[in-house]
Design brief:
This protein has a domain of about 160 residues. The protein is about 50% helix and about 25% strand. The chain contains two helices and seven strands; from the N terminus they run H-E-E-E-E-E-E-E-H. It has a seven-stranded antiparallel β-sheet, with helices on one face.
Length: about 250
Amino acid sequence: MITGLILRDALGKQENNFFGELNMIRNISLFFAMVLIFSAAISAQDDSKDYKLTSEMLDKQSNELDQQIFNLNKSLAALIKKYDLLKTTDIKVLPFQTNYNLGPDFIEIEKHSFIRDDKFSNKATGVRTKKIVIYTNGETVSKIESRIFEKNFDSGDENVVDIVDPSPQTPDTNDIIFTHTYKGKVLMDKKKFADVKNNTASPLRNEIKQTFLVPHLSLFYDILLFTASSYYKSMKDSDSTMLEFLKKSANY
C-alpha cells in the first residue's frame, strides 16, 4: 500500500515535470516566434527605408549629372565667344583624326578612328566616328546635334545613333531626342530622354548621362579648346616674329 502511494506520488511528480517542461518549451517556442515576427517587421521597414534612400540617391545623381551637362554646354558657348570661333575661318591645326567644319551658324567637329582586326594590321575593316554640331550665334548655343556612327567595310553594315539637344541652354535634359538605326532599320525613332527608364532596378537614363553625354561633351570641349588655343598661339607667334623683324630694322 505504502509502496503504491510512493509510486503514484513519483509518477505524479514526473507527470507534473513533463507538462511543466512542455509548457516551458511552448513558451520558448512562442517567444522565438514573436522574435522572428518582430525581426521580419523591422527588416521590412529597413528594406523600405533603403529603397527610399536609393530612390532619393538616384534623383540626386540625376540632377547632378544634368548640372554637369548644363555646365559643359555653357563652357562650349563661353569658349566660342572668347575665341570668336564663328568668325575664325582659317583654323588648320587640329588634333589627330579630327575634322573641323565652320558654317554660318554652326561649328561641326568630327573625331574618327579605324577598326582593325589586329592593332598591328594596316588593313582597316571598319570605321567609327563621333560628331558634334554646335549651333551658335557666336555667343550662346541654341542647339547641339551629335552622331555616333560605326560601319563595317566588309558587310556594309552601319550602326548610327543621332542625338539632338534642342535646349542646351537649360539644365533640363528630358527633351533630348534619340534616334537609333542599325543595318538600315530604325530601332528607336525620335525617343525623348524623359521616356527612357530610370528607376532603381534599371537606371538607364542616369547611365546614359554618366557614361556617354558627360564624356562626349567633355571630349569635344577639350578638342575645341585645343583647336582654339593652338590657333591663337600660332597667331601670337606670327605677330612676335614680325615684331622682332621690325625691331631689327630700327638698327639700320
